[in-house]
Amino acid sequence: MLVGTDRIERIRDFNRFYTERLGLLTDQYLGLDRPLGPSRLLWEIDDRTTVRELRDRLGLDSGYLSRLLRTLEKQGLVRVVPHPADGRARIAELTDTGRRERVVLDDRSRAGVAALLGELSPAQQDELVAAQQQVRRLLRLATVTITAVAADDPRARRCLRRYAAELAERFPEGYDEATLTRPEDLDGTLLLACERDDPAGCGAWVRLTPGVAEIRHLWTDPTTRGLGLGRRLLEQLETDAAAHGVGTVRLGTHRSLAEAIALYRSSGYREVDAYSTSPYNQLCFEKHL
């Protein structure tokens, strides 16, 4: 998708503004003897955390994380020890000095935020918090990757099984996992959404007749709901189907899935007569691409 130069420059300008205004560039973050990177790592360790979890949570490569940990070790704040149950893993834990320093870090961070908010009216404070929540939601959505995967991709198949398990709980009549489209029958495209390499959603389309396809198994992980990922997956399925010569897409859903019905209607789908024998397709929709 093309992005206007003006939007890019406005976001770059905002990034420069808030990193300077919040003091993120100094080598003495919050007035302590270390910059933001080691300070954040000290906070994330909490009391003790595996090095692997720290790496995944912060999105750091192993070499850089090791250098940060060595810096904190030299300052007497952290020690890195072998994992008691896994000889290949290591655990970072705070020393007594590190725990005291983390308390100071927490207190100064809260005081800084309180001082910042204190210059705003209650209504302005609420406005700022709401704006941050919106930025967080959109940035999470923007960093989710969606890729086409093989029909038998293990991560996608796990998503589909989770989809089936959720429907089995939500449908009064249950849901038979055998209804899932088998890999050998998936003649269209299977999309997998991932957030930081963790599967976060899926969806597929299959051909019904020449020029007509059905979208199936659109699902998002509960932790991502509210981001707009379902709509993004739906749009990418439509785009992919159109690129393969599909002019009309259909889909069916259950009356229990009010949020899915609302998504389809707001995305331009119109209700049509039943086109399949699936007992779960209590409502059927169609859209011309």
TrEMBL record:
Top-rank taxon, per record: Bacteria
Domain HTH marR-type: 1-140
Domain N-acetyltransferase, chain residue ranges per copy: 144-289
PROSITE patterns, per the entry: GNAT, HTH_MARR_2
Molecular function via GO: acyltransferase activity, transferring groups other than amino-acyl groups; DNA binding; DNA-binding transcription factor activity
Keywords assigned: Acyltransferase, DNA-binding, Transferase
Pfam families: Acetyltransf_1 (PF00583), MarR_2 (PF12802)
Matches recorded under PANTHER family: AMINOALKYLPHOSPHONATE N-ACETYLTRANSFERASE-RELATED, AMINOALKYLPHOSPHONATE N-ACETYLTRANSFERASE-RELATED-RELATED
UniProt name for this protein: DNA-binding transcriptional regulator, MarR family
Provenance organism: Micromonospora krabiensis
